[in-house]
């Protein structure tokens, strides 16, 4: 071998450690940790890189009042790989049901101040799934306290801010407080768009629901016209959109208003009709709408009054 030339020893490739995070099914992640990680962080893969910055400690008891306390990325169950199958004691179940629900209400309020509606719903359910009894208690609070927003415009349907390609039965039917925002489109001949079919379909899925609150917010280009024809069209198509909700049968509190985007104008439909035109026909249509609205609200409340409020709204 010529002098000055030496064979360098092949560098031994360093095997990166396994990702220390858990998957959504609470199984160990099979990926390898990334080579770069934040200071004081845990070895995690690229998919779980944010979890590596939130450190928790395994709470598995080892006997003699000792705990495992191994550093792990934060999860709801707070157990390492070794103790993943261990069932931790659930101290909250020792509290009375009323106190547990107050705690869940406080957590839900904190989530609503930090997340959008859909992520509040998703994150709260994720925590509730830790225990069957907790799930029943927490979801009871969730579906009573969280308002489900449903937006309809043309063929588009959004529930909790998420677009739905088709209206099917689901957990949205369990909500006890619903807010509908209807962007109504009607041509000059009075023909309705596809939104009316979606309203009828949603109302059929909610048939027999035990609602606490129902709020319907209406928006249409016709609300911006200041002539009697627009008042006439609004008066004619409103019953078509409100009548499907009669089959709900059990509503404790309900209201119908105009879109808040109409700044400077009253959100009450009756006053809007009177402001748009001062002639006698417009005033007559406003009175006709008032009679219809009173009859519509009484129809929805009648079943609760007959059965008694206590029985109608017990959970």
UniProtKB/TrEMBL annotation:
Alphabetized InterPro entries for the sequence: zf_Tbcl_3 (IPR058251), zf_Tbcl_4 (IPR058252)
Transmembrane segments: none
Boundaries of every Probable treble clef zinc finger fungi domain copy: 56-84
Any single Pfam family the record assigns to this protein: zf_Tbcl_3
Domain Probable treble clef zinc finger as annotated: residue spans: 15-52
Protein name, entry field: F-box domain-containing protein
Lineage: Eukaryota, Fungi, Dikarya, Ascomycota, Pezizomycotina
């Amino acid at each position: 071998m010529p002098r000055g030339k030496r064979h360098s020893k092949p560098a031994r490739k360093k095997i990166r450690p396994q990702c220390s995070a858990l998957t959504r099914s609470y199984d160990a992640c099979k990926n390898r940790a990334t080579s770069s990680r934040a200071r004081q962080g845990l070895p995690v893969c690229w998919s779980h890189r944010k979890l590596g910055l939130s450190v928790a400690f395994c709470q598995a008891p080892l006997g003699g009042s000792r705990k495992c306390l191994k550093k792990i990325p934060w999860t709801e169950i707070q157990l390492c790989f070794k103790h993943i199958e261990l069932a931790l004691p659930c101290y909250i179940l020792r509290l009375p049901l009323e106190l547990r629900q107050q705690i869940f209400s406080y957590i839900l309020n904190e989530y609503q101040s930090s997340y959008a509606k859909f992520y509040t719903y998703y994150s709260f359910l994720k925590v509730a799934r830790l225990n069957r009894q907790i799930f029943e208690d927490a979801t009871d609070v969730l579906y009573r306290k969280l308002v489900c927003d449903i937006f309809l415009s043309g063929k588009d349907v959004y529930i909790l801010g998420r677009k739905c390609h088709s209206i099917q039965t689901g957990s949205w039917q369990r909500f006890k407080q619903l807010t509908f925002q209807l962007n109504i489109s009607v041509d000059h001949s009075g023909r309705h768009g596809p939104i009316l079919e979606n309203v009828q379909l949603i109302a059929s899925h909610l048939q027999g629901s035990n609602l606490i609150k129902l709020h319907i917010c209406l928006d249409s280009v016709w609300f911006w016209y200041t002539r009697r024809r627009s008042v006439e069209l609004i008066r004619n198509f409103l019953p078509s959109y409100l009548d499907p909700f009669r089959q709900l049968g059990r509503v404790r509190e309900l209201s119908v208003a105009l879109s808040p985007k109409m700044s400077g104008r009253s959100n009450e439909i009756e006053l809007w009709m009177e402001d748009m035109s001062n002639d006698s026909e417009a005033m007559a249509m406003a009175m006709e709408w008032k009679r219809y609205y009173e009859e519509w609200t009484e129809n929805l409340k009648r079943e609760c009054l007959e059965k008694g409020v206590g029985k109608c709204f017990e959970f």
